Amino acid sequence: MNFETLVINPGSTSTKVAVYQGKKQLFQTNLCHPIEEIEKYPQISDQFDFRTQAILKVVEEQSYDLNRLSAVVGRGGLLRPIESGTYEVTEKLKEDLRLGVSGQHACNLGGLIADEIAQKYQIPSYIVDPVVVDELQPLARFSGTEALERSSIFHALNHKAVGRIAAEKQGTDYDKQNYVIAHLGGGVSVASHEKGRVVDVNNALGGEGPFSPERAGGVPVYHFMQLTKEWPQDKIYKTLVGKGGLVSYLGTNDLRVVEQLIAEGDQKAKLVFDAMAYQISKEIGANCAVLKGKIDAIVLTGGLCYSDSFVQSITEYVSWMAPIIVVPGEDEMGALNQGAQRVLAKIEHAKQY
Ligand SMILES: Nc1ncnc2c1ncn2[C@@H]1O[C@H](COP(=O)(O)OP(=O)(O)O)[C@@H](O)[C@H]1O
Ligand SMILES: CCCC(=O)OP(=O)(O)O
């Protein structure tokens, strides 16, 4: 059956909207949200109406009749740690998304907006492989202090989707391969995929890993404590997430703007560009150690991979460790649709949160 689904993916810098009929995409629109627009809203939940209206406007512009839909599917948010899969949006799931039980991020709106639209048309709503998919091995859970355990918060949906793409390119199955996958978007997550399980990954929202277009990544903690000892919590958080990385150094979260500055001869922009590639490469190297060098490929994905020079810069550091596979952008929309289609076709049951 060719079920039609509306797919909604709120990211930190964009909202992606698509309609699928079976596997076929009927349309996709990527709405970009410049930092000035996002900054107007103090809380993520304050963006609910603005993003919902923007999505409905896209659908209207495409003259698509929402009565044709069988389901609405949204990118899952910061719930409690759960296993990989497709989950039905329930009251309990929505409550935890609203509370942000594991933190605040735009993807918390995915399930909420999906359900808002689905309820109007009396159809089900789902989330797939939310950012809290947790397959960490015991060793990866150590933070270095008994008081804190590391957690698995990363771009699980795209990691899994791109893992399957890489395996297909290599003529095999995802759960037979070992990959280091680096998702390079507004936030960055670099993970060790061992036979289909993400056994280690930097927390993309937790002050770990490389800096990214808008995240600081790991910072020198002692000096950071001194710097921020008089600051309110939300200012500290925004310094790490939202106003870190490229935004902090260059005032933009857009790598294309950075490339333009470099083309105009801006030396600082060049140094920051090189530093981001350097930190990401170092994290890839760390994950190659996690897999004890038994790696079938290093996979680079996300919006930053549309930049040939950025990919080239990372490749120079890491290509000696394993073959490089580049999947620019992401297949999150396709993966969300596939997750919903499997449930609609009764190939799988939707999991209950
Ligand atoms: N053609 C391109 N060339 C260089 N950078 C790009 C290109 N397209 C997107 N990007 C960069 O990718 C980043 C966003 O990646 P994306 O995966 O869309 O992020 P998110 O989903 O986290 O919002 C931004 O820094 C953006 O400037
Ligand atoms: C891992 C949490 C989700 C996230 O960081 O997504 P973006 O990079 O799209 O902001």
Fold blueprint:
Blueprint: E1 4-10, E2 14-21, E3 24-32, H1 35-39, H2 48-61, E4 71-75, E5 86-88, H3 91-99, H4 108-120, E6 125-128, H5 156-169, E7 178-184, E8 188-194, E9 197-201, H6 221-228, H7 233-240, H8 245-250, H9 255-263, H10 267-290, E10 297-302, H11 308-318, E11 324-328, H12 332-344
Parallel strand pairs: 1-4, 4-6, 7-10, 10-11
Antiparallel strand pairs: 1-2, 2-3, 5-6, 7-8, 8-9
Bound molecules: adenosine-5'-diphosphate and the ligand CCCC(=O)OP(=O)(O)O.
Adenosine-5'-diphosphate (ADP) binds next to helix 9.
Descriptive terms for the model:
353 residues; alpha/beta; Nucleotidyltransferase, domain 5; 6-stranded mixed sheet; 5-stranded mixed sheet; 12 helices; 38% helix; binds adenosine-5'-diphosphate; binds the ligand CCCC(=O)OP(=O)(O)O
